Amino acid sequence: MRIIRLRVKIQNLTWLLAAVAFLFCCLPVLTRPAIGAQDIDVSTPEIEAVRASLTWRAESLFPLLDGGQIGIAYDGMLKIRSTEGLGLRQLAMLHRLVEEDNRDRLALYRDIALANGFPEKVPEVQAIFADSWRARAAPGWFLETDAGNWVRK
Questions:
Q1: pLDDT (average), residues 94-109
Q2: How far apart are CA 16 and CA 151, in angstroms?
Q3: H helices within 32-79, ranges in order?
Q4: pTM of the model
Q5: C-alpha span between 38 and 18 (Å, rounded)
Q6: Could you read off the pLDDT of 18-71 as tens digits, one per residue?
Q7: Do residues 123 and 113 touch, judged by C-beta distance below 8 A?
Q8: Residues 70-88, buried b or exposed e (16+ Cβ, 10 A)?
Q9: 10 touches 2 (CB < 8 A)
Q10: Staple 42 to which of 46, 92, 108, 115, CB 3.0 to 4.6 Å?
Q11: Domain regions of the chain by residue span
C-alpha cells in the first residue's frame, strides 16, 4: 500500500515538473504576437507625431461628433453626416478637420505597419483601429454599419 502511494506521489510530481518546464519554455512563445501580427503600440518619432496631431485635433472634433455632424464610418474613418444649420465658415472648418484627421489616421496605419516590418499589412492595422475607434466612441456618437446605415451608440 505504501509503495503504491509513493508511486502516485512520484507520478504527480513528474507531471507537475513537466508542466512547469513547459510553462517556462513555451510561455514566452505563447505570449509573443504571432508572426505577421501587428503591434499597434509600437512607437517611432513619426507615429508619435501623428498621435499628437490626432490628440490635438480631437478637442475640435468632439463637439461635431456630439452634435452628429460627423460620425465614425465602418472603416474607422471620419465621415460627414450632416451639414444642416452650418454656415460657410463652419462648413469649411468641418471639411478641413475631417480631411486632416482622416489623413492622419491613414498615416498612422501606414507608419505602424512599416514599423512592424509589414508595409503590406496597412489594411490589417486599419481594421484593428476601426474596431477600436468604434468601441471607444462616446454614447450618442453616430457609427456607420457595414451596410452604410448610421446608428447612434
A1: 97
A2: 52
A3: 45-67
A4: 0.73
A5: 32
A6: 443 333 333 333 333 444 566 888 999 999 999 999 999 999 999 999 999 999
A7: no
A8: bbbbebbbbebbeeeebee
A9: no
A10: 115
A11: 1-32, 45-152
